[in-house]
Amino acid sequence: QVQLVESGGGLVQPGGSLRLSCVASGGAFSTYAMRWYRQAPGRQREWVAGIAGSGSIRDYANSVKGRFSIFRDNAKNTVYLQMNSLKPEDTAVYSCNAYANSKSNYWGQGTQVTVSS
């Protein structure tokens, strides 16, 4: 069983930056692909970014490409989401996900990001 705890959310002005963190415990962190998702009020959950266990492969949703960066530190069991040039439409609850297979698929509780002036 893997536990995931996100942090780093908050209120930021448009154009600002935030760095989210997700700390994992209870599993072999480097064996999991890690992903960030977000869900805005009244909308479906949306995949934002993903990174392979080794960190060698990263991918991003078109809506955040060029602005967000995902990276991980396997020694610290942590995955990060660096968010730059934030827009009001980035406002959502951001959750991290650890995925190895259909039976090893874990979620954190999420952290709120609000982009507003």
Folded structure, characterized:
The protein is built from no helices and 11 strands. The chain has strands at residues 3-7, 10-12, 18-25, 33-39, 46-51, 58-60, 68-73, 78-83, 92-101, 104-107, 111-115.
Lay out the secondary structure:
Elements (H helix, E strand, L loop, with lengths): L2 E5 L2 E3 L5 E8 L7 E7 L6 E6 L6 E3 L7 E6 L4 E6 L8 E10 L2 E4 L3 E5 L2
Parallel strand pairs: 2-11
Antiparallel strand pairs: 1-3, 3-8, 4-5, 4-9, 5-6, 7-8, 9-10, 9-11
Question: How is this structure best summarized?
Answer:
The protein has 117 residues and is mostly beta strands. It is built from no helices and eleven strands. Strands 2, 4, 5, 6, 9, 10 and 11 form a seven-stranded mixed beta sheet that branches. A four-stranded antiparallel beta sheet has the order 1-3-8-7, with no helix packed on it.
| Series of H and E elements | EEEEEEEEEEE
The count of helical stretches stands at 0
Number of strands: 11
Low-confidence stretches: none
Structural class: mainly beta
Give the integer mean of the pLDDT values: 96
Radius of gyration, taken over Cα atoms and rounded to an integer in Å: 13 Å
Beta-strand percentage range: over 45%
Termini separation: 40 Å
The major sheet is characterized as: 7 strands, mixed
Described by the principal axes of the CA atoms, the overall outline is globular
Helical content stands at under 10%
Could you name the key traits of this structure?
single chain, 117 residues, mainly beta, seven-stranded mixed beta sheet, four-stranded antiparallel beta sheet
